[in-house]
Amino acid sequence: MNNKTLPPSSPGLTVSPTEPIRSFLLSASKEPHLSHELRDLASTLISQNHIHYRSLRSIWIASDPSTRPELIRLFSGSQFIFNSPKPREKSEELKARLKKLQELAERNAYQELVKDITPKKDENEPFSSYKDQLGFGLHVALTMFTGYLVGYAAFRALFGHNPAMSAAGGILGLVCGMLVETLLFIIRTSNQDPKSSTSTSTLKKNQ
């Protein structure tokens, strides 16, 4: 068994010194029956505020049974002292994850706070999504292609098998199709503008 003095922060059972314990250690430091190391250990433990049970018990076992106090009397009135474990250090990965979660919680709290004063996005706004943009593009391309075929067929019927006039008719039909699509887009957009202006004015009145 190691009889050297243990530091107060080392693991193991620790007791608070009482007058019987100090008196026993003082007599043990002068007892010739004990080894030199145990006498030095007893002298050192006298001045300590926390005494490890292992060190005190090693001195008590080596002491003369006829002169040493009973173990129950020795620890009578003494209190056990428990050393709190060191707090676990958070890893860098955990710190970064906690920071992201905190930022997300703050962002959600801010959005919840300003949801009544922030105007909502108009879901019917044209080209508000990639699907709308793709659908509009395909619709325009189909309309222009149809206009080209109609113009090409009409000019071919009027001017016979003249490739130049047939091509010119196709180009004219393509332009007409593009103009029709543009006109429909303007009409559709103008019908949505009054709704957005009405919602904006209502929001300003509420503020």
TrEMBL record:
<keyword id="KW-0472">Membrane</keyword>
<feature type="transmembrane region" description="Helical">
    <location>
        <begin position="136"/>
        <end position="155"/>
    </location>
</feature>
<keyword id="KW-0256">Endoplasmic reticulum</keyword>
<keyword id="KW-0812">Transmembrane</keyword>
<protein>
    <recommendedName>
        <fullName>ATPase, vacuolar ER assembly factor, Vma12</fullName>
    </recommendedName>
</protein>
<dbReference type="InterPro" id="IPR021013">
    <property type="entry name" value="ATPase_Vma12"/>
</dbReference>
<dbReference type="Pfam" id="PF11712">
    <property type="entry name" value="Vma12"/>
</dbReference>
<keyword id="KW-1133">Transmembrane helix</keyword>
<feature type="transmembrane region" description="Helical">
    <location>
        <begin position="167"/>
        <end position="187"/>
    </location>
</feature>
